[in-house]
Every structure is written in C-alpha cells, then in structure tokens.
Amino acid sequence: MYAILGIIVAAGLYAVVVYNGLVKSRQMVEEAWSGIDVQLKRRADLIPNVIEAVKGYAAHEKSTLEEVIELRNRAQGVPAGDVAGRAQAEGLLGQALGRVMAIAEAYPDLKANEGFRDLQATLETLEGEIQMSRRYYNGAARDLNVKVDSFPSNLVARNFGFTKAAYFEITDAADRAVPTVKF
User: Which of 12, 21, 99, 137 could form an SS bridge with 32, CB 3.0 to 4.6 Å?
Assistant: First the structure.
C-alpha cells in the first residue's frame, strides 16, 4: 500500500518538476522574442535617420529609399507573435538596407560625412545585436521544443497544452547567398 502511494507521489512530483521546466522554457522563448523585438524596434527607429542622411546625397536613388521605408512600415505591421511573418519581413528589410549601404559606397562625400558614418556604425552594431538576439531566441525555442518532443516530458506537455515554438529562420533563399564583393 505504501509502495503504491509512494509511486503515485513520486509520479506527481515528477509531473510538477516537468511542468515547471516547460513553463520556464516557454518563458525563456517569450523573453528571447522580446529581445528580438526590442532590437528590431531600435533598427526601425534608426532607419529614418539613415534615410535622411542618404537622401541629401542620393536624390535620384529615391525608389530604393522609398522601398526601405515601405519595408520598415510593413515589418512593423506584422503581429507580435507571428515569428515566421516577422522573419520574412525583416529579411526583406535587411536586403533593402544593404542596397542603401551600396548607395553610400557610390557617394564618397556621403561616406566621409561624420553623421552618416556614425549612423552606419550604429546600424552595423545593431545588426550584430539582432543576430545575437535571434540566436538566443532560436536556442530557447530549441530547448522548449526538445522538452515538448522528448519522452516522458511530452506527456506532460501534451496534457497541459505546451506547443513547439517556431524558429526565427530565413525564408528567402537569396538571404543565404554569399554577397559579391568587388573592388
């Protein structure tokens, strides 16, 4: 009788420990997504400054600059929980920002402008922080997904509605392409 009661208590304690671990993992994923969101917001706030700096030097590149603004607005319009949609929108925005930096390469006066150099350095730092935030998020998502899929924690996950988290992935194959560098 005591052995059966002991097994039931041990199973209950195990379920509590697993449940708490799943809750912790889910919270880590949410925290990581919040970190990405903060960095993307910083980038979105910085873009108008970069665009204004470039506009003065590259009036005839207006379509590229307008595309960046449109893609920035589209990225900000993606719902907060839509990881795949946000990844796609941010990937397109990143490509467009690369074209803006190419415009800067074409205008030596712009590259020499101290304000633009500061903006460019800030943007490069920010892109590095976004990359780190994405890696952290994907690591947290991986940890949660392993717990949701692994036996016996998957039994607890299924019974309490825990689901796998989506990875922040590149959806456009062109984003994976190696850039061409010409001198």
Answer: 137
Q: What is the mean pLDDT of the chain?
A: 79
Pick the CATH number of 2-169 from 1.10.10.10, 3.30.70.1120, 1.20.81.30, 1.20.1440.20: 1.20.1440.20
- Interatomic CA distance for residues 58 and 51, integer angstroms: 10
How confident is residue 97, by pLDDT bands cut at 50, 70 and 90? confident
Separation CA 48–CA 44 (nearest Å): 8
d(C-alpha 109, C-alpha 123), whole Å: 19
Q: Which of 58, 73, 71, 74 is nearest to 116 (CA)?
A: 58
